Amino acid sequence: LKKIIITIDGYSSCGKSTLAKQLARELDYVYIDSGAMYRAITLYFLQNRVDWTDVAAVKAALADIHLEFVPNADKTQSDIYLNGENVELPIRDMLVADKVSEVAAIREVREFAVARQQQMGERKGIVMDGRDIGTTVFPHAELKIFMTADTAVRVERRFKELYARNKNITIQEVKENLELRDFIDSNREISPLRKAEDAIILDNSELSMDDQLRLALQWVDDVL
Ligand code: C5P
């Protein structure tokens, strides 16, 4: 059976990674969370007090950043490692979420991340989720999905996820962060969040996880 590239883009907390993981498991593909790369870079910038408004400082920092996806117990999934350290948990913190869209708008940061993402897709058999995967990273992907969901649904999902780890978090804070990131991601100059012309829209506000998987598998069948 031929292997393809599947891209999943969309607004924050639409359930992109849930669908991407489901598809990777079902098809025995590799799942790559491109947002984890921007988050890990942001974590490094924060930890090392990098002034990311200074291009030279950004370049020097990127030269020192080594990112790697290492498969974890679930073989279709992986954890992201920043200079040898598993940062899968700290990159989900609000401190990182608050700054990641600013960092992800920087040209040098995007070039660094996109080059690695394209390398990982060379052998196909990959599902990658993000904001610009169907438009910039893999413009020739065989299947492109653009996910949306109602804001209230998205806020609630992300709140539940974050609250499980941090009881101090508030709904308001989560809502503001999602709206801010969506705004910056959609309005930045380089590779803004857009639906690729040939992407299929998937609104999962009222779909169960089984429903969305069944739909997406149908689309996979259609292109195979
Ligand atoms: O997917 P996630 O919400 O973890 O992504 C975090 C942030 O990383 C996004 O809000 C966006 O600013 C950035 N990002 C991006 N391009 C991607 C994936 C993520 O700019 N392909």
TrEMBL record:
UniProt keyword Kinase present: yes
SUPFAM superfamilies named among the record's database cross-references: P-loop containing nucleoside triphosphate hydrolases
Residue span(s) of domain Cytidylate kinase: 6-217
Binding site residues for ATP: G10, Y11, S12, S13, C14, G15, K16, S17, T18
Chief location of this protein within or outside the cell: cytoplasm
Any one Gene Ontology cellular component term annotated for this protein: cytosol
Annotated GO biological process: nucleobase-containing small molecule interconversion; pyrimidine nucleotide metabolic process
Keywords: ATP-binding, Cytoplasm, Kinase, Membrane, Nucleotide-binding, Transferase, Transmembrane, Transmembrane helix
Compartments reported by the entry: Cytoplasm
EC numbers: 2.7.4.25
Superkingdom per UniProt: Bacteria
A molecular function (GO) term: CMP kinase activity
Any Pfam family the entry gives: Cytidylate_kin
Matches recorded under InterPro entries: Cytidylate_kin, Cytidylate_kinase_dom, P-loop_NTPase
Swiss-Prot/TrEMBL catalytic activity: dCMP + ATP = dCDP + ADP; CMP + ATP = CDP + ADP
Family the UniProt entry places it in: Belongs to the cytidylate kinase family. Type 1 subfamily.
Annotated HAMAP family: Cytidyl_kinase_type1 (MF_00238)
Stated name of the protein: Cytidylate kinase
Organism of this sequence: Chitinophaga japonensis (Flexibacter japonensis)
Species classification: Bacteria, Pseudomonadati, Bacteroidota, Chitinophagia, Chitinophagales
Underlying gene: cmk
